[in-house]
Amino acid sequence: MAIRSYKGITPAIDASVYVDESAVLVGEIRIGKDSSVWPLVAARGDVNYIRIGERTNIQDGSVLHLTRASKSNPEGYPLIIGDEVTVGHKVMLHGCQLGNRILVGMGAIVMDNAIIEDNVIIGGGSLVPPKKRLESGYLYVGSPVKQARPLTEQELDFLAISADNYVQLKDEYLAEN
């Protein structure tokens, strides 16, 4: 795997985390227990920082980045991902905040300073524009996203099940190495 320092800062990855050897992680990144980073993920913690919580999975081909501090935005926008988050294949997350128990569908884009509250599903291919806030307990779809409907009990339960499934899968991968 390509774990690279940037300006003397190296990603901090819990020992229970699986990172595929084709993933690239650079700079100020912290990844919590039982999380996983799958093939061809690119995560650059170079102009700000990335935090990934526990039991979170970042699936194949996703890109994680952030926004640099500037005069008009003195803090910039880090990328903060909570616990039990499933980030689908080829997702782009840029300087946004994701709460806990979220599913980001394949190919979705979440832009700068968007805030995704806990217990949300973002449909595949959706675009969450800058500064958009997605309220807890709903399915969001479209480009730009719109609140489609409340999540069902089954969907809410699935958010934790998805995290469980990826913890089990990453354990299987770690056992083979």
What does this structure look like?
- The protein has 177 residues and is mainly β.
- It has 1 helix and 20 strands.
- Strands 1, 2, 4, 6, 8, 9, 11, 12, 14, 15, 17 and 18 form a 12-stranded parallel sheet that branches. The chain has an 8-stranded mixed sheet with strand order 3-5-7-10-13-16-19-20.
- The model has no long low-confidence stretch (mean pLDDT 97).
Task: Provide a compact summary of the structure.
The protein is mostly beta strands and 177 residues long. The protein has one helix and 20 strands.
Features:
mainly beta, UDP N-Acetylglucosamine Acyltransferase, domain 1, twelve-stranded parallel β-sheet, globular
DSSP strand content? 35-45%
Report the C-alpha radius of gyration, rounded: 15 Å
Q: Assign the CATH class.
A: Mainly Beta
Q: Looking at this structure, what is the CATH superfamily?
A: Hexapeptide repeat proteins
Would you spell out the secondary-structure blueprint of this structure?
Elements (H helix, E strand, L loop, with lengths): L1 E3 L7 E2 L4 E2 L4 E8 L4 E2 L4 E11 L4 E2 L4 E3 L13 E3 L4 E2 L4 E3 L2 E2 L3 E3 L4 E2 L4 E2 L3 E3 L4 E2 L4 E2 L3 E5 L2 E6 L2 H24 L1
